[in-house]
Amino acid sequence: MVLVSYISGGVIAIFLGPPLVTVPATSTCEIGVTPADPRFSSTDPVFLPLPGISTNDTHQLLLFSRASNKQWKMSQYTANDNNNFFNNSHSFNTVWNNYIVTDDRAQLLTWLSPLEPNLRHRDIRERRVSDVGEWMIQGEEFRRWCRLDGEGEGDKAVLFCSGNPGVGKTFIR
Amino acid sequence: MLTSHDDSSLVVDKLCDQARGQNTLVTCFYFDFAAGMEQSAISMLGSLLKQMVSRMETIPENIWRAFREQRQFISGGRPQLVDIVRMLQVITSSRPTFICIDALDECVGVQRVRVLDSLKAILEKSPTTRIFVTGRPHIQGEMGRRLAGRTASVSICAAKSDIIGYLRARLGEDEMPDAMDAMLEAEILEKIPENTSET
């Protein structure tokens, strides 16, 4: 079974592949819509394309829309070629609070780290002048370090670029 | 795996170019004295992990599992350092990874010890991980010891050609070009590089 987990405004689609699909039980993939997608404002189930999943066979799609905090409305559809979905056995209510519906990529990422360090990088990048420091990445030390073919079995896996304050280390890296 | 390209600089750019179209992950972290305890070992390694995970199409099952387990508790604890290192090991051992760390000397005391020990633990599990570190020279000995001699080093001093290139670019952006004449410009391009390259 493939869980297609993109959820917001209350829609989650759980995709049940054909019997012989060999996908790990709870692998996830994002469907190509964002929370700003107007389709999420609908209270009706929405059909969503399923990237990366072959549509050569018949699939079943279960679509969940949020009825309340703990209640999800489940609709079952069958898909044939070309991602056309047909309403199969429409709409029965179920309480769906013991499954993965709360999994959310964004929440997981925040859980891993609340830091958003990208702001400073942009600033440095904008202040950097092109070609300055090229000698560093053309140098033998650097080229040997970033080769990943296992030469020397990753012996010197760390490259330490040292310098006193103000020489421009930050701009180099 | 493509990596985002808007958050990087020279080395990171170079690595991203090299990684394009491949399965390689490029991540970076920037230490800063001013950030203080906000930049502990756990938040730094957590940030690396977050960058890696956010660039993966499929989040590894062990990370989902850890996340779900934690959610069962009302307090919803954050991952511990040991958990983060374990998750990093799983990812970095499955694909080539570059980790760039700026100003490691600005991470101090026990936090730096934890960072280095964690990096060592990651390298032990992952032969295709490369770590690029910048910092002041005084941490070189500590890095050598903590990373079990796996460190090569290169010393940065601003090359004269770099300084001239930088000055030219800045002079080109001069907002008051009338105040500049050829002689003053020539003097700037001569004197400043001379004085700075002595340091």
Strand order in the sheet with the most strands of chain A:
3-1-2-4-5-6
Measured by residues with Cβ under 8 Å of the partner chain's Cβ, the largest interface is: A-B, 63 and 76 residues
| Percentage of residues in helical conformation of chain B | 40-55%
* Total domain count of chain A: 2
Query: What would you report as the Rg of chain B, rounded to the nearest angstrom?
Result: 21 Å
**Strand arrangement, major sheet of chain B:** 1-2-3
What shape does the CA trace of chain B take? elongated
User: What is the domain tally of chain B?
Assistant: 2
CATH topology of the largest domain in chain B: Rossmann fold
Low-confidence segments of chain A, given as residue ranges, are: 1-61, 64-74, 79-103
Biggest sheet record of chain B? 3 strands, parallel
Question: What key phrases describe this protein's structure?
Answer:
heterodimer, A: alpha+beta, 2 domains, six-stranded mixed beta sheet, 5 helices, 28% strand, elongated, B: 199 residues, alpha/beta, Rossmann fold, three-stranded parallel beta sheet, 8 helices, 4 strands, disordered N terminus
